[in-house]
Each structure stands twice: as structure tokens, then as C-alpha cells.
Amino acid sequence: MEGIRLETDRLILRQPALDDFEPLCELMGDEVTTRFIGGVQSPPIVWRSLCGIVGHWALRGYGFFSVIEKESGAWLGRIGPWFPHGWPQPEVGWSLNRASWGRGYATEAAAATMDYVFDELGWRDVIHLIHADNAASQAVAAKLGSRNSGEEVEVAGFGFLVDVWGQSARDWRRHRKALAG
User: What's this model's pTM, rounded to 2 decimal places?
Assistant: First the structure.
């Protein structure tokens, strides 16, 4: 499982490590940060979540990356490809700690992840499951070129509804060129 690492101008996206547990507890303990992703979790539940992320890597060969700010070495959150049991299809999802909001990190890391899932994993399309009230995540998805499909699904195991956003690999490549140009 070692060795998969993505880099952007400001970020390192690497596979999760044991050192990520405490900052993940902080992220998942923040009521504002977690309001659209299932709510606050206690450290024992966060531990199970981290183990699930590591297990996802072992079983599927991909999963959430830990997002590290290059300049400070700070752990900012998790972003990556995700396809747990009960999901409608593979997703690129993101959750960053509140201190890093508004700096473009989610879009930067998600764009690198989109390149990865289409170029390395060979995905044909991608979704983002976003709560209807989560304007910040909707803005990230729109910057990536994804659109709300109008479909609403229940998040398996959590019991709340989310909108399905997404795009095809072809649309992403066209949008990526526009972002670069």
C-alpha cells in the first residue's frame, strides 16, 4: 500500500497513516465541519473510520488521501476516491478541517484526485454525494465542472439524503484544459 502520493503546488496527498488519527478526531469532533457528513464522531468511532479508510485502500487499491499542506506539514483533511458498500457508484469526496476552508485547497486536491481516478484508475465517470444545504461543497463541485444530476440518494448507513453531482471523464478532460488554459 505504500507509494501512492499525489502532489499539487501547495499540497501533498498521501495514503493515511496512524499519525492522522488525532487530527482526524479534531475534524470529526467539529460540529460545523461534520454537519453535512453524518455529524460529530467520538474518538472510538473515528478510529473505526480511519481503519475503514485504510481497509478501503487494502481492498480496493485506492481510497481517501490525507491532505497535507506542503508549507507547514499540517494535516488538513481527507480527499479522494471512495466506493464503500451501498454507494451508487465510485465517488471523489472531500472533508477538510475548518481552519483550511476558503483557501482553495479542496478544489486543488479534488482536481488532482480527479486526474488520478480518470488517468490512473480508468474511471469513466465520477460522482460527488453532496447534501442539498452544503453550498461550499456544491461550489467545489461546480469549480471542478461537475453538475447536479437532479438525483437524490440516501447515504448508506447514515440515513440522510444527498444530491448526486458528477461528470464523465470526457467532460473532466475538457474542463481541465479550460482550467489550465
Answer: 0.94
